[in-house]
Input
Amino acid sequence: MKSNRLRLLLPVLLMYAVSGCQKQQTQVVTSELAPQIKNEFLHAWQGYKTHAWGHDELKPLSKGHRDWHSVPLLMTPVDAFDTMLLMGLKTEAEEARELILNQLSFDHDITVKNFEITIRMLGGLLSAYQLDGDERFLRLAIDLGQRLLPVFNSPTGMPYTFVNLKTGAVSGAVTNPAEIGTLLLEFGTLSKLTENPAYYTAAKKALVELYNRRSPLGLVGTTINVDTGQWGDPSSHISGMIDSYYEYLFKAWKLFDDAECKTMWETSIAAVNQYVADEVDSGFWYGRVDMNTGARTGRYFGSLDAFFPGLLIYAGDRPRAEKLQASCHKMWTLHGIEPEMLDYSSMKVTAANYELRPEIIESAFYLYTFTKDPKYLEMGRTFFESLRQYCRTDAGYAALNSVISKEKKDSMESFFLAETMKYLYLLYTPETVDLQKVVFNTEAHPLQRTW
Ligand code: DMJ
Output
């Protein structure tokens, strides 16, 4: 009788023991890693301060700086500011804040890429305003938004690639879904905060015009002309040039309750899962197909694509999210750090550089947040250790020319502090943000639903 009861109780006791153990493991990883990540963020910021203060980016090998245009737009401080606030780095946040508010101006005769300036600068200024409350951040965002608006003056309403911040002259009619469809979170938030619908309307129209040009299979291609509305390269995938178009369909629904975005997301993800997803011996991936026929044209997956498990779990698709993250982890551990592009049918690297990209860590963050499975904390530890081992320099962090030779490259893009370090930190402190109220833009700037 007694032994029978014990036999019945044993699985329950075991379950408690295992979950107790997991909890302990989780606490150890969290308390150990969060402060270390913060220290590494500080190390990189110190490098920027010492060698690149007032410029766009640090050059971590030559200890110099790089500006994107003839005048700096303070990319790194604007991108890094909200990470400092989330990490509780008050002194550094104050330094960055002063620099931005005293020096940043958009009144320059320079031609900028609308997409990059929107996700990094407009997104950064909007989240700075929401987190810090200083109206000057909002004024900068409004000024920038006004200067960017001419991009939408094309015959189709889809934006040109470039705009001159002083003259409003636009150029670059051949662009891609990511650069057309990754604007609504920022322009939409600007509309909500200013009660001026012009920004939301323009960015939403661009998104819908793009969606309306999907193929009969429901897929989009890689390049499109905004004057004619004609597709160029018909290759369909979830990689760079398309990636965040899908991300914003879903997130715009979350942030604005926009039902049309929900429908566009649901139609699109169904087509992507039907045609682009690919199960091969090496695992579950998303490759390349022709947007019109669905015929497979390539089996490539890379560091940019690794945002997709995060998006899938956010949207409730746990099975595909977990399988894809397992493949991403395989891609990372193949050479100790992930390459820009991999042929997953042969597991051969086709582009060997690593640009300090965040996507795989972003996915680990979303997967851990939604599943609480400690294996994602362990994955994060692997990512963090590789970064420290291969990319750390005495002045900051450096991209790699090759994940095979581990030869470093003289570049630390601003997204390293905006995204890579932020998602790493949030992975171990997920209580810092409430995803019911906050939506991250594609540069990891948290936008709050205050409306
Ligand atoms: C960032 O600027 C954004 O995450 C963008 O969506 C893709 N490229 C970089 C990071 O890899």
Summary: Confidence is low (pLDDT under 50) at residues 1-18.
